[in-house]
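Posting this for the archive.
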Amino acid sequence: MPEVEQAQGDTEPLHTTPKLTEKPVVSKAGELREPKSRGGAGYLAESLPAAERRQIGKVARLPRVMELTGLGRSSIYNRMDSRSAQFDPSFPRSFPLGAQNGGAVGWDEEQVKAWVAKYAAND
């Protein structure tokens, strides 16, 4: 149990260390999802180590990713699925945009552009 510091006369603790009872869940596609019993994007951001948290630039939704890559919807998701023959571990991972599992997702547009540039340079 974390120790609590109290000033004399105060009834509330000045400092407590939060206790995380659940960890974020990583789906088979490699995207981070929140446990079902917890909600809100704040929990996910607070629970990640500082090294894993980073600033996301412009968020690209699926039609924009399709436009940038020239790939169709199923090809994009196949690149992220480790069970697929088209799996590409270097393909940018999507991330949830809301608190609900199975809701809207987005991609970091800069990562998508970097992935396209990497493959354009290989040709």
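The first strand starts at residue 25 and ends at 26. Residues 12-22, 37-48 have pLDDT under 50 and may be disordered.
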